[in-house]
Each structure stands twice: as structure tokens, then as C-alpha cells.
Amino acid sequence: MAGKKRAKTPLEFRNTQLADALQTQDMAALAFALRHGPTVVPLLRPGQRDDPRDTGEVWTYRDSNTGDIALLLFSDAANKPAALPPAVALQSPDWLRAFLTAHESEITTVFFDIAGPHAMQAAPADLLAALAVEA
What superkingdom heads the lineage (predicted)? Predict the structure, then answer.
């Protein structure tokens, strides 16, 4: 079989456990899903493929009336509204913890699947606490 390349399985931009937690609106299940699986993050600028350290530039929403900044996260790339930038990244629990820690004073809220089907909202401090606890 020389010369044949094995087809790569396409990367799935979803976290089924997170989707299930959002459907039941269960904060404990949400925390577990965030600690043990990836999160789909919208990107303003995708990372460079040849540089694994470049994870891209995360897109955040700034309310023009209040100046509040929200981080939008998704259980599945299919739940991201088309009005957002088209690029997404699949980020690890460690990445989410580091990002929230670095930007906790700027981000006022985190929305999950903001356009549905089962939207949920949490404060960055609550998510950091959930990410720190090992169940």
C-alpha cells in the first residue's frame, strides 16, 4: 500500500458534554464539561498553522452602550451565529482557565451558545472557580 495516504478524520468543533449541560442548564455538569473537554471559541484572527504557539486572536463582544465585554463560547461551531467572524478554534480547559485568568478584570460575562439552542451565562469568576475544582 505504498503511496496511499490515510484520510485524516476531520476535526470536530464540538463538545457533546457541554451541549448536554447547556440543555439541562446544570451548572455542575457545565463545570465538568469545561474541565474535561474543549470549548469552541470565535476568532477575530485565526492562528498561523505553522506556529503551534499562535492560537489566534479571540473575538469578544463589547456593548456599545455600557462598554461591557462578553466572551462568547460555544458547545458546537454550528451554534455560532453567522454574524460573528467565521474562524473558530477548539480550545482546551487549560487555555480557557489561562484566558479567563488573564482577562478576568475586563470580561464582565461569558455566554454559552448565545443564539441557542440552550443559551447560558456565567461570571468569569464563577467559571474560574468551576475550572479549579476537580470533581
Answer: Bacteria
